[in-house]
Amino acid sequence: MSLPPLREVIAAHGLSASRALGQNFLFDEQLLDRIAAIPGDLRDKAVLEVGPGPGGLTRALLRAGARVTAIEMDRRCLPALAELSDAFPGQLRVVEGDAMAIDHRELMGEPFAVVANLPYNVGTALFTRWLDGEEWPPQWTSLTLMFQLEVAQRIVAQPGGSAYGRLAVLAQWRSAAKLAMKVHRSAFTPPPKVMSAIVHLTPGDMPEGVSARRLSQVTEAAFGQRRKMLRQSLKGLPRAVEVLEELGIDPTRRAETLSVSEFVSVARALGSA
After folding, report:
1. Structural domains in the chain?
2. Looking at the whole model, is its pTM more than 0.70?
3. Do 218 and 267 form a contact (C-beta atoms < 8 A)?
4. Average pLDDT of each block of 10 consecutive residues along the chain (273 residues)?
C-alpha cells in the first residue's frame, strides 16, 4: 500500500535522531529496498530487526513480504511503527526493550534472518553475541548488518593487515562473511562522521573438536598483545607455546599473520588442555 515519505512520518511524530542511542536515519527508499534484498527472498520469512527507529528499513522488509519482529527501546518511535503495523496487517510485531537484554531465540521461536541498521553504540556487542556459543548452527539463518565501515572491514579482513583481528576470526571460523554494500554518510540524517557498510554472514559448518570458548581464549590472548610474538602473547595459556611447535607454527610469528584455520588448529589442540 501507499505510505507517506519517511521524512513526513518523522516530521509528523516530531522525531529526531538520538546521539545517545546511536541513531542515524535512512530515508532513501530505493537504498532501503536494496538492503532488504541482500538476504534473498524474504516472503513469509521471519526477520529480526534491532533498532528500527521510525521504520525505514522496516517498511522495506515488509514490502519484501517478511514477517518482522522489531526490537526498539526508543519509545518516541513506537507510534510511527504502530502505523506501519496497521499498514501491513499481521506482518509486524514491535517489542519495546533493550535488544541486549532479550533472548532472541525465545522471542523468535523459529529460524530467522537478522536484518538491521544497528545502533552504533551496541552494534559490535550484538554481533559477537550472535556469533558466540557452542551451539551451532545457530537459529539465525543469516545476518545482514550495517556497521561503520571500519568495523565492517575488520569483520571481513584477511590475515596480514592491521584490520585483521579477533572480530575476523570470530566471524569467519564457522561462517561465510562478505562486505555486501558500502553506504555513503550523506545517505543518513544526520550524516555520521564516518562511512558505513553492510556485512552479510551465513553460518557454515563448525570445525569438529573445537570449543568456541577455547578459540575465544586463544584469540583474546594473541590479539591482546598483537605486536608481540606468539610465544610471548600466548605464554599465559598452558601448553600453548608447545602446541604451536607441535603444529609447525613458528612461535616468533605475530597474531595477525595466522590464518583462521591456524587459530582453529591451535584451539583444537588445546581443547583437552
Report:
1. 6-203 (3.40.50.150), 212-269 (1.10.8.100)
2. yes
3. yes
4. 78 69 74 97 98 94 98 93 96 97 97 91 92 95 96 97 96 98 86 89 97 96 94 96 97 97 98 62
